[in-house]
Each structure stands twice: as structure tokens, then as C-alpha cells.
Amino acid sequence: MRALISAHGLTKSFGDKPALNGVDLEAEAGTVLALLGPNGAGKTTTVRVLTTLLRPDAGRAFVAGVDVLRHPGKVRRLIGVSGQYAAIDDYLTGRENLEMVGQFYQLKLQEAKRRARELLKWFELSDAANRPAKTYSGGMRRRLDLAATLVVRPPVIFLDEPTTGLDPHSRLMLWNAIAALAEDGTTILLTTQYLEEADRLSHKIVVVDRGQVIASGTSSDLKAQAGGQRVEVIVHDRASIDAAARVLSSVTGSEAEIDRPARKISIGADRGVLTLADVGWELGKRDFEVDDMFLRRPTLDDVFLRLTGHASEATGAPPKSGKAS
Question: Which residues contact 8 (CB under 8 A, 6 or more apart)?
């Protein structure tokens, strides 16, 4: 498959503060590439370079085979961009916003109107089409903003943290729209702090931290780096946690990890559900009182912890301080 987005060795500093430090990435046609990282990791700076809004200090970038630095005007005709904040006119109606975008791209008026109707229906905004955008909720504004990027059906779309601050219903609607676009052949670069979002939507994930790519691959590839499955047991009585941990270790032959405040014991489960069954059997024979026991597969948050030493900001855990913008 042909890469519709590619970057090689992108570097960028603002004064003495490096924002990008040799970023490499590729997104193949009809796929979603998630650029995942905490605030300050360099995600937005990367998008600004790829969308011709910012020149890198070094490196090369191509969109749909076009050199971003040599032919920025041609690149702009091939892309749609939705930034962190909805770029719509509050005093125009939803319909007028979309028709205006169509006319900016020199669509004939009737074609712009037809396309606006299609997009308003697709994003479930038809009932609000004639209301000023300033009366829209946050989720409606984000949907209108995404619709505006699609007026001329660009082959490549950049979405910079498009669901930040949205309620669950609005976020799900945008997720469905993004997935449908990719299925229809659109190539999408999506930046996000939300692990679930990257896991659900992406064909490939690039993890950045402090302006550097620290890992890339499919969600399954990255999770494999965080280790295999684990059995987790929550005991009822904190006083029994050490004895229960010894039982888990005797089953697997490895050392159990203990989280005393949570009354939780965790241990590797090379045999998956068979390990879970053996642990349950041994704990039951010894009459341990257990509140919960389950088999847990690695998550992208485990990947973050392993690669960066901190949880993603979306989990609420404090991140490392970084220099990237």
C-alpha cells in the first residue's frame, strides 16, 4: 500500500526548546494513523508541519506524494484539517458555514448547497441547519467542524485531538464518522491523548514523548511490548494478602506483584484462562475470601507506563515535564 502521509527526520525548536527531534511516521492509504502522546509531546507541532502551517528546521514530509515544503499550495488542496478548536463562524448557520467552505474551494453554488445538505444529514445536524453556530453545543460544533473538512472530499484528513472535552455520545458519533471515512478510503492522521480512542480507531499507532517517536506499530504490537496477560486477584481481607500472593507464586513459579492499598495481587499468566482457573482452584482450597478475580490483557496505558515511565494524561496521572510544544 502507498503511504499518503510520510515524514522523515522532522526537527523543530522554538528558541532553545526542542519540539520535534527526528520524527518519522507513515500512514498508508485508507488507514487511520493515531499519533499518541501527552500534552507537550510534539503532536500538534507535527500536524502543523504536515499541513504546511509550520516549516521544520530539518527533515522532509510528503502528503499524497507531494513535498510539503516545496509545494505547500498543492498540499493544501489535497487535505482537510480539523484543529483542537472548531474553526467555524459563530454568526453563520450550520448550513451557511458549509456552503461558505464550498465556495472558498470554488464549488459552484448549487454543488456547495448540495454538499452541505449531505453533510448536515450525515452528521445529524439537519434539524439545526438554520440555527447560528453560536447556539450549537460543543459536540455539535465539533461535528460541524469535521463536516467542513469534508466539503471537497479530500483524500487526506488531519484531526488534532478532535474529541477533547466532548460528552460520551458526541465522542461516539465522531468515532463512527472517522471509522466510516477510513472505510471509504480516506487517509487520516489523528492526534489524541485518549488511549481508548487510539485503540478503537487506528490501524497503526505512533507514540511520541518529548518530541521523539518512542514506539510505533499496531495496537496489538504495542501491547505485546507491555508484557503478556496477567491474573489479578482482589482479596477481601488485607491481612491475607501476603499469604494469597504466595499461593499465586506457587501456581506460576514467578513473583507476584502486590498493591496493598487496593488489596490487589497481580501475576503473569502465560497460559491465560488456564492460569486463572488454577489460581482460583488453589485459593478456593485454602479458603481465601476473594472479592474479585480476573484475567487482564495489556492496555495502551500499560504501554505508556512501560515506554515513558508515566501514565497518559487522559488517566489523570501526572506526566513527566517535557519540553515539546
Answer: 24, 59, 60, 61
Handedness of CA 320, 299, 44, 125 (dihedral sign): negative
Asked if 181 and 157 touch (Cβ cutoff 8 Å), the reply is yes
Q: CA nearest 228: which of 306, 151, 282?
A: 306
Q: In terms of Cα–Cα distance, which of 109, 101, 202 is closest to 144?
A: 101
Residues 160, 164, 167, 172: is their CA dihedral positive or negative?
A: positive
Give which of 113, 174, 102, 177 is closest to 138, Cα–Cα. 174
**27 inside domain:** yes
Same-domain check for residues 56 and 44: yes
For the beta sheet containing 257-259, the strands, ordered from the edge strand earlier in sequence to the opposite edge, are 257-259, 264-268, 230-235, 290-296
Which position has the grid cell 487520516? Answer: 188
Look at the chain and report how many structural domains it folds into.
Answer: 2
Do residues 80 and 150 lie in contact, with contact meaning Cβ atoms separated by under 8 Å? yes
In angstroms, the CA 253 to CA 259 distance is 19
Find the helix packing angle between 241-252 and 273-285, rounded to 10°: 130
Instruction: Give residue-wise pLDDT tens across range 275-310.
Output: 999 999 999 999 999 999 999 877 777 777 777 665
CA distance 60 to 74: 16
| Boundary of a domain, candidates 190, 224, 258 | 224
323 within a domain of the structure (yes/no): no
172 and 205 inside one domain:
yes
**Residue 160: inside a domain, yes or no?**
yes
pLDDT in tens, 219-243: 888 877 766 788 999 999 999 999 9
* Distance in angstroms (rounded) separating the CA atoms of residues 186 and 157: 7
If phi > 0 it is left, if psi is from -120 to 50 it is alpha, else beta; for residue 211 that is left
Instruction: Please give the Cα distance from 94 to 135 (Å, whole number).
Output: 10
CB atoms within 10 A of CB 262: 12
Residue 232 lies in a domain: yes
